[in-house]
Each structure stands twice: as structure tokens, then as C-alpha cells.
Design goal:
With about 750 residues, this protein is an all-beta fold. It has a domain of about 200 residues: Immunoglobulin-like. About 5% of the residues lie in helices and about 50% in strands. The protein has 3 helices and 44 strands. The strands form 5 sheets. The chain has a 24-stranded antiparallel β-barrel. The longest helix has 12 residues. The protein is globular, with a radius of gyration of 27 Å.
């Protein structure tokens, strides 16, 4: 692998130039010489001895003075990085504080937080945010926040830190303390060098202020772009190396109704409910300031939020995001994207889940951090046998390092999936991302996979994947992206996710954007064209083609709207079903359609997201509407929902087939305080005739200590016109779980 990496480095050195984006001297953070009373009121005299960090407006008018005053100071002691903020308001009644939820995304709410690039690598960051209610939101940033927030931010990541807030008629106030043991960093001698971004949201003015100034040309994720962070230095920072031991106990009851052998009626599996009780343990140990070891035994994820139901009108697999906490620690380090929205050489939901059914995980280990100049992630886990799936061992090793300049990297990955019945699946990949000049980046990847059941040799392109991409990461002026991908017909990584394989082709985007300035009501707008064309490797014929010109507008009141036309050609190789009665036949189809969307600001009591699409659909027609309202009724109660309707009809078919799909979800969140919350989720899709209910109560008195009560209910609604007649429900389960963390 070293030879391949050295070849990549030497091949692209001639194209790359060293860059220092900040162009600023490092700010030295001062040590606190007196203790701080941690009460959310930064009034101690010691705060005034620290350097003040001045904010500048990011939006709506870049580089303008903030509309409201603030006083932000940062210091440290032997154990914590301390942050204080006095966030003044001329009219404190306009503070929008409508949530106490842990990990609430605070895009449009009044909020304050920092992002730390702890390795100063201009690519990865740790975010710590709060709101006037004192909630904690933490997440990780990867790939310099390029792409959308779903791929660039891991909001499921949690760590140990504390925050307290207070309010009065002059504004609101913050004190944060972040243990150095929660920040993985690599000191050089006696100095720790990091990057920092400070952000304040003022919802009443639809305003975001930052330190340092960050150009909004980088788009919606600009304030998370760690390559734009200010460099800071902390002398003598040495984290403690605590051991976190987190045992859990779980118990519950489950009832199931299934068809009998003659399939004439539904019967209960057992006259008494199935009893479940279990226990397990997680251990976290900071080997040093760079490396963290995680161990888990008899892992259980019963408390994890239910997956959202999705309507699939394509011939490709649906993607469900990872929500299990164990897989969140520096999950971006294991990322090896294969070019698609979700395609990846490592997809952690392959571990411990078959379809959507959980499989018991006996245990595993993970090491994440930095070895010398290399970012390193290692994971190994063992699962038990489940129905037709044998017990399996999963392994991943990922290495990356910075080369040439601050924004260029090379790396490699190896994955393995070993069945206890002798099956083997091995995959490896090497990749490089190179900042060529300005905002232009080159991304290259090569990967191969070996599966013992196919036995395909690695000396061909059949089990191989290739990607080459060039992009300009800017939404002002000319921006572009073009990708070439080749996914061999035998490329099947056992721990990966691929929506469509056995294809090759190109996809890309061309846009031109404007930021009209302070006098305009518009923040930015652009015209764009997105296109792709893929052919099947099997026969060389068309798999799919899309050309989509569009127009996008963002106003200074955070109203977003977008509209696009779509011309598509689809080459269907095999018949595939949209429902039991409606099939799309193999052949080539051409059709024209449109899409439109509108999102209102979430900094209001009522906000709405809406989408509409329509046009031809294979040999028929389609119209679709989706509405997602959100009601912030108070800081304790939030209601949200979604309704999606799709009508598909085929007037030229003999039986004039038609399909009406209604998908409904409703969610209620009650937050007594920042520690105790309850969520109710109800989902229904008429084509599946499954009504899914989920109730989850969480009590989190402090990080690492969690008490959950979870109730799940699955039932059908068409009882009278079905045979055999449906039971009241197919399954219902109630579980209680408690985790307690001991810090040694």
C-alpha cells in the first residue's frame, strides 16, 4: 500500500501548491489563574483578563457589523477548555428559545457555539453548541463540510462536556467547559495547535455572526468549514486519561402474532409474552491524547430511534442512516465514499442488522485517533448466527494523512467480512484528495473487492471501482463538479453499500451564482445544470441519463426555493415492480418532468418544507406532493409531521393501471427540561398497510447515564377486507434500559 500511496503523492505533486488559507498569526489562549464558578453567569473578574473574540456578520450582509453586541472569551485550566459568552439583545423578548432537546440542530434558532479543528488538519472538526434553554448539541464535521449537512455532519456523535446558560432583560449568557479528555489532539512539544470557529445566531434578524469572517460563497455549510478556522495555540494542554466504564441492563416483554401453517389465521406465538433481559458493557480508554480505545461486549441498541419509513419508486435499494451510538466515534475517519449520495466501502449498518432485523453483537473493539502523521481507525466486531445468516466477523482498517498542502490527503482502507461457515469477503481501497488551486479539488479513488462465493480474480476490472472527480467548491461565480465512476459487475464489498453496480459513466454540475449585496432582499441565487449518464458494463447499453437545468434562490429571511426541469432516459434491464400489480417492463424509456421545493425559516412558531414533482414516468405519468410542517409551540412542546402523496398512472396500458401512495408520519416531542424528554412517532404507508408506533422516554441526568423506556407497536389497518383477518397488531414490545457510566 505504501508504494501505491507514494505513487499517488508523486503523481499529483506537480499539480498542487502549498496553501495557508488563514494567513493569520495564531491566537494564544490564556490560562485561567483563578477558578470559575460554573453557573452560566460569566461575571468573574478573571474573564475580563482574557482576550475578547470579535464577531463579524456572515449573513445576511457579509462583513457588516453584528446587529447586537456580544462579549466572548476563551481560557483553559489543567482539565477544561472554558468558553464564556455575553450575548446581548436590545429587545430580549425577541430571543427565540423553543427547544430543550439534546442534539437539536440550531440552524435558524438563537444559538451560540464553537467548532474546534483539534488536529488543525483543515478537514475535521468537533462542534459544541447551545441555546438559551441550556441544551447541548454536539456533532462532528468531516471533509471540510463539503456537500450537504447530512453527509458532512454526524449529529449522532456525543461526548462529555457541560454548558450552563442564564437570561435577563439584556440578553442571554453562556459558560461552557469542555474536558481536554474529550478533545483528541496532538501537541507538538508543549503546544497544542487547533483551529476554531465561533458562531452566534440571532433568529429575530435571520442573522449569523462568526469569528473569523467566513465567506458565504461556500454555501449553507460555510460556517462549519474548518479550513477557514482561526488557528489558536494552547500551551501545556495535557488531557487526563480517564477510563469510562458503561455497563447496561435491559429488560422487556414482546408479543407476536403470525400466520399458522395452513395460513388460515393469525395466532400468538406463545400464550405468554416473550421475556427479554440482558446486560452488557462498553469501555472507553484514552490511550493518549491522540488515540482512543473502545471495547464493547454483548452490545444492544434497543433504545435507538426508529427508522423513518421511505417510499421507493426506483429500482435501487433504499439507504437508511446509522443511528447507533457505538459507531459514531470519529465515524468520518472510516468514510470511503464511492461517489454516490450514500455509496461507501464501509456501511456500519451491515454489522448487527439483517434487512431491518437486529442481530446480536457478541462484542468488538475500535481504536481511533492519530499515529504520527496518520489518522487511523480500526474496528473489529463479532455477531452471532441469525436464521440463514451465519455468525460473522467484521473488520475495518482506515489510514489517512495530509500531504503537499493543508487541504490534500492520501489514504487507504481494508475491510473484511468472514462468515463462520467459511465465506470470505475482502475489500481494499486507496484514495487521494488534492487542493490544486483556489477552491479547485481533485479526488481520485481505486478499490477492489474479493468474494469467495464469486471467486473473481483481482487481476481484472470486474471486481474493481474507479473514481476521478474535479470540483470547484464555490457558490459565487462559476462553480462546477464532474465525476467519472466505474463500478465493476463483480464489485461487491461485503461491508459496503452500493445502490447500483456494474455501471460506468459521468455525472456533474455546473452553476453560476450571485450574492447581490446589502441592499437586496435576496441573499444569493444561482442557475445550474445537473447531468449524468451511466451505461451498463454487462451489455454496454444505457442504464440511466438525466439532464436537469434549475434555478435556486435564498432570501435574507431564510426562505429557500428551487425549481428544475428534468429530462430522463432509463434503460431497464429487468422487469421491476412498483407494487404487486404494477410492473415496469424491461426496455428504454424517455420522459420529461419537473421538481420544485420551498423551505421557510425555522426561526418562527410555524415553519414548512414543501416539495412538488410531476411529469412523465416511464410509460405513464406521475404527480407527487410532500408537505412537512413544524410547530414550535413552546420550549417544551414541538410537533412535526409529514405527508407525501404520489399518484402514478398508465393510461396507455390495457388495464390502465394506477397507484396512489399515501405516506404519513407524525412526531410529538415533549421536553420537561434538558434532561428528561419523551417522543411519540407514528408512521403509516398505505401500500404496506403498516401502522408503526414508537414511544421513547429518555432521562439523561448527565453524559453517560441514560434511562430509557421504549414502546414499539406494529399493526395493519385493513382488517375487514383481508384474509386471513388481521390481528389487532403484529407485534408490540416494551423495553426498559439503563446505562451508567463510571469514570476512573
Amino acid at each position: 500500500m505504501d508504494k501505491i500511496l507514494n505513487y499517488l503523492i508523486s503523481s499529483f505533486t506537480i499539480l498542487a501548491f502549498s496553501a495557508n488559507l488563514s494567513g493569520q498569526d495564531a491566537v494564544k489562549i490564556k490560562r485561567l489563574t483563578e477558578p470559575v464558578i460554573f453557573d452560566g453567569q460569566p461575571n468573574e473578574a478573571i474573564w475580563t483578563s482574557l482576550e475578547k473574540f470579535p464577531l463579524v456578520m456572515h449573513r445576511p450582509n457579509f462583513m457588516a457589523n453584528p446587529s447586537e453586541e456580544c462579549d466572548i472569551r476563551i481560557g483553559y485550566d489543567n482539565e477544561f477548555l472554558w468558553v464564556s459568552a455575553k450575548l446581548f439583545m436590545k429587545d430580549a423578548s425577541k430571543i427565540f428559545a423553543v427547544t430543550k432537546k439534546r442534539d437539536e440542530m440550531l440552524f435558524d434558532y438563537d444559538a451560540f457555539g464553537i467548532i474546534l479543528d483539534t488536529y488543525n488538519d483543515n478537514e475535521n472538526g468537533l462542534a459544541f453548541f447551545t441555546a438559551p434553554t441550556g441544551l447541548r448539541t454536539d456533532y462532528t464535521v468531516s471533509n471540510d463540510a463539503s456537500g450537504n449537512h447530512e453527509t458532512a455532519m454526524n449529529t449522532s456523535w456525543n461526548t462529555f462536556w457541560d454548558v450552563k446558560t442564564t437570561r435577563d432583560d439584556k440578553g442571554w449568557y453562556v459558560e461552557m467547559r469542555i474536558p481536554f479528555s474529550s478533545l483528541k489532539f496532538k501537541p507538538s512539544g508543549d503546544m497544542a495547535t487547533m483551529g476554531i470557529i465561533i458562531t452566534r445566531n440571532i433568529s429575530s434578524n435571520n442573522e449569523t455572526d462568526t469569528y473569523p469572517a467566513i465567506d458565504p460563497k461556500y454555501g449553507f455549510m460555510a460556517t462549519n468549514k474548518v479550513s477557514q478556522a482561526q488557528t489558536i495555540e494552547i500551551q501545556g494542554a495535557r488531557p487526563k486519561k480517564p477510563v469510562y466504564i458503561s455497563p447496561y441492563v435491559i429488560g422487556g416483554l414482546s408479543w407476536d402474532w403470525k400466520k399458522n401453517d395452513p395460513e388460515t389465521e393469525y395466532v400468538k406465538n406463545d400464550p405468554y409474552p416473550d421475556k427479554t433481559y440482558n446486560a452488557g458493557i462498553d469501555v472507553k480508554y484514552n490511550i493518549n491524547s491522540n488515540l482512543t480505545l473502545d471495547l464493547t461486549a454483548n452490545t444492544d441498541f434497543a433504545q435507538v430511534e426508529a427508522d423513518d419509513q421511505q417510499v421507493n419508486l426506483t429500482r435501487y435499494s433504499l439507504f437508511f442512516p446509522e443511528k447507533r451510538m457505538f459507531f459514531q466515534e470519529r465515524s468520518s475517519l472510516f468514510d470511503f465514499s464511492l461517489g454516490g449520495r450514500a455509496d461507501n466501502l464501509f456501511y456500519s449498518r451491515n454489522i448487527g442488522i439483517s434487512g431491518r432485523e437486529p442481530i446480536r453483537i457478541y462484542g468488538g473493539a475500535r481504536i481511533t485517533g492519530r499515529l504520527g502523521k496518520w489518522d487511523m481507525g480500526f474496528l473489529n466486531m463479532q455477531t452471532e448466527e441469525h436464521e440463514s445468516t451465519p455468525g460473522e466477523n467484521f473488520g475495518v482498517l482506515r489510514m489517512r494523512r495530509q500531504v503537499i498542502n493543508q487541504n490534500s490527503y492520501v489514504g487507504g482502507i481494508i475491510t473484511s467480512r468472514m462468515g463462520m461457515n467459511g465465506t470470505q469477503n475482502l475489500a481494499y481501497g486507496v484514495d487521494g484528495i488534492f487542493r490544486i488551486f483556489g477552491d479547485d479539488y481533485l479526488n481520485v479513488k481505486w478499490s477492489q473487492a474479493y468474494d469467495s462465493e464469486s471467486g473473481k480474480s483481482l487481476n481484472s476490472l470486474d471486481p474493481s471501482f474507479i473514481l476521478a472527480s474535479w470540483e470547484r467548491r464555490s457558490e459565487e461565480g462559476l462553480g462546477y463538479r464532474i465525476n467519472y465512476t466505474y463500478s465493476g459487475k463483480e464489485f461487491n464489498p461485503g461491508i459496503g453499500f452500493i445502490q447500483r453496480g456494474g455501471v460506468q459513466g459521468v455525472n456533474g454540475e455546473l452553476l453560476y451564482g450571485w450574492f447581490p449585496g446589502e441592499k437586496s432582499k435576496l441573499h444569493d441565487y444561482n442557475i445550474n445544470v445537473r447531468a449524468e449518464r451511466y451505461t451498463r458494463i454487462e451489455d454496454g447499453n444505457l442504464e440511466s441519463m438525466t439532464i436537469s437545468p434549475g434555478f435556486e434562490i435564498n432570501t435574507k429571511k431564510n426562505l429557500h426555493t428551487e425549481i428544475s426541469l428534468q429530462y430522463q432516459k432509463e434503460g431497464v434491464f429487468f422487469d421491476f415492480p412498483l407494487s404487486e400489480d404494477i410492473w415496469i417492463k424491461a426496455g428504454e424509456y424517455s420522459f420529461l418532468g419537473f421538481e420544485g421545493s420551498i423551505n421557510t425559516s425555522e426561526s418562527r412558531v410555524i415553519s414548512v418544507r414543501g416539495e412538488i414533482n410531476g411529469g412523465k414516468f416511464y410509460d405513464g405519468n406521475r404527480i407527487g406532493v410532500q408537505v412537512m410542517p413544524n410547530l414550535n409551540l413552546s420550549s417544551s412542546l414541538k410537533l412535526s409531521g409529514g405527508y407525501e402523496f404520489n399518484r402514478i398512472w398508465f393510461p396507455d396500458r390495457d388495464n390502465n393501471n394506477s397507484l396512489n401512495i399515501h405516506s404519513i408520519n407524525m412526531r410529538a416531542l415533549y421536553m420537561l427540561n434538558t434532561k428528561l424528554s419523551a417522543t411519540v412517532l407514528v408512521q403509516y404507508v398505505n401500500t404496506e398497510d403498516e401502522l408503526i408506533g414508537n414511544f421513547r422516554l429518555r432521562y439523561n441526568p448527565r453524559e453517560g447515564n441514560d434511562f430509557y423506556i421504549v414502546y414499539n407497536d406494529l399493526r395493519g389497518l385493513k382488517r375487514l377486507d383481508s384474509y386471513p383477518r388481521l390481528p389487532d397488531f403484529f407485534n408490540k414490545t416494551i423495553m426498559v434500559k439503563y446505562t451508567h457510566t463510571f469514570i476512573l
